[in-house]
Amino acid sequence: MKILVVEDENKTADYIRQGLREAGFVVDVARNGLDGHHMAMNESYDLVLLDVMLPDVDGWHIVKSLRDAGHQVPVLFLTARGSVDDRVKGLELGADSYLIKPFAFAELLAHVRTLLRRRNVPAQSDQLQIADLVLDLTRRKATRMGQRIVLTNKEFALLELLARRRGEVLPRSLIASQIWDMNFDSNTNVIDVAIRRLRAKMDEPYEPKLIHTVRGMGYTLDIPDES
């Protein structure tokens, strides 16, 4: 599922993006109202997280414009303005919910999942399984053959990305942007090193091997074709 975050405070935007990505969502960030308005109007999202007080176009204008154009994407306002009048104004303009800053990420995630359920979009599963590999997404734990695999946060995020897109060949550029939030530099071997470490922990001691290199293209995770 794809979420748009419109937030001009860089630390807040990065915090939200990282947390949502680790929870399994695809996240785009707009750091001003004009960009956020353009992206929300022209791209397809399952949810928009929208700051009210933006430096150019405020969130109230953006949500009104979306609704006037017939866009029914759920909108969650993120704001330090918590008065009753402000909340009522946002809801009357077409927002679906309000979250007052500062907030705990767990609270934000609960709002996100609730809004997605209301839209009849299936919530993210709490577990992924491929062969004997099981990922507990809530507890951020991985096991094979029932044995716990100790992974760093980045290693778990990388494994989750591969598992969610099982069978797809993921290029290094996509892995770099999703896990390290960086543009891929062909001179760096950070992706290859991370894959090698992940394989050593969750693949080399077990059969079948699940992580595969597609030369010149990238990496994929799947059960090998026995034929």
How would you describe the overall organization of this protein?
This protein has helices at residues 10-22, 33-42, 59-68, 84-93, 105-118, 153-164, 172-179, 190-202; strands at residues 2-6, 26-30, 47-51, 75-79, 97-100, 127-130, 133-136, 141-144, 147-149, 211-214, 218-221. The chain has 227 residues and is of the alpha/beta class. The strands form three sheets. A five-stranded parallel beta sheet has the order 2-1-3-4-5, sandwiched between helices. Strands 6-7-8-9 form a four-stranded antiparallel beta sheet, with helices on one face. Helix 3 (59-68) links the parallel strand 3 (47-51) and strand 4. Helix 2 runs parallel beside helix 3 (59-68).
Topology record:
Blueprint: E1 2-6, H1 10-22, E2 26-30, H2 33-42, E3 47-51, H3 59-68, E4 75-79, H4 84-93, E5 97-100, H5 105-118, E6 127-130, E7 133-136, E8 141-144, E9 147-149, H6 153-164, H7 172-179, H8 190-202, E10 211-214, E11 218-221
Parallel strand pairs: 1-2, 1-3, 3-4, 4-5
Antiparallel strand pairs: 6-7, 7-8, 8-9, 10-11
Helix pairs in contact: 2-3
What brief labels describe this structure?
8 helices, 11 strands, 40% helix, 21% strand, alpha/beta, 4-stranded antiparallel beta sheet, 5-stranded parallel beta sheet, 227 residues, elongated
Shape: elongated
Distance between the termini: 33 Å
Which quaternary structure do these chains form? single chain
Instruction: Give the % helix.
Output: 25-40%
Radius of gyration (CA) equals 20 Å
Average pLDDT level: 86
Helix and strand pattern: EHEHEHEHEHEEEEHHHEE
Taking strands numbered 1, 2, ... along the chain, how are they ordered across the largest sheet?
Answer: 2-1-3-4-5
**Portion in strands:** 15-25%
How many β strands by DSSP? 11
Biggest β-sheet: count, sense, barrel? 5 strands, parallel
Q: Number of helical runs?
A: 8
Low-confidence stretches: none
Protein structure class: alpha/beta
